[in-house]
Amino acid sequence: MSGRKKKAIAKSGEKKAAQKIRLTVVHCQEAFEKVVGLAKDSLLATAIGDQRQLVLSSLRKLSRFQPDDTISIKRAIAARVLETEHYTA
Asked: What is the pTM of this model?
């Protein structure tokens, strides 16, 4: 979590900073998935034969993570935007 989000939580409490936390979670997860995809494309373009399988298995091992349910988080973000009738972080 970024320093700005931590400051917001410390200042206004976790309940008021919930929207910022949701936005951060979605952004980080989508960015991580994008980075892994780009890394996979790069490795596929450079590795050949048995080396390809080795580097791909290493990438899978290094990029393991417990994904969050981004669909429900995005729905919560959208509900908050509709509730306030404008975008607020």
From this structure: 0.77
Domain 3-84 CATH superfamily = Butyryl-CoA Dehydrogenase, subunit A, domain 3 (1.20.140.10)
Model pLDDT, residue 2: 65
* Residue listed under structure tokens 């404008």: 86
Splitting the chain (89 residues) into consecutive groups of 10 residues, what average pLDDT does each group show?
70 78 93 95 92 93 92 94 80
How many other C-beta atoms can be found within 10 angstroms of the C-beta atom of residue 71? 9
Neighbours of 20 (CB within 10 A): 20
Angle of CA points 66, 13, 3, to nearest 5°: 60
Q: How many beta carbons lie within 10 A of that of residue 3, not counting itself? A: 7
